[in-house]
Design a protein that fits this description.
alpha+beta, 16% strand, four-stranded antiparallel β-sheet, globular
Length: 75
């Protein structure tokens, strides 16, 4: 099964403190990748290290603040 991700600049995560702290530690000079399961990685091809958060606050932040959604023709 294919997975979907979308790239975001590390600065986009500043408004969500737990993810912002993770990004500051793991982000390189490039974007971070938010995946269809709402995990966050610093590498488009690796699952680790990953930021994982199953809270409603994180899910709401991803959808409302970041505008994340899997395109309808892919999901």
């Amino acid at each position: 099964m294919l997975r979907y991700s979308r790239a975001y600049p590390p600065e986009a995560l500043r408004a969500f403190e737990p993810a912002s702290a993770w990004a500051a530690t793991h982000a390189a000079e490039g974007p971070l990748f938010l995946w269809d399961d709402l995990s966050l990685t610093a590498d488009a091809f690796a699952d680790e290290p990953a930021y994982r958060d199953e809270t409603a606050e994180w899910q709401r932040f991803c959808r409302e603040q970041l505008g994340f959604a899997v395109p309808g023709d892919l999901g």
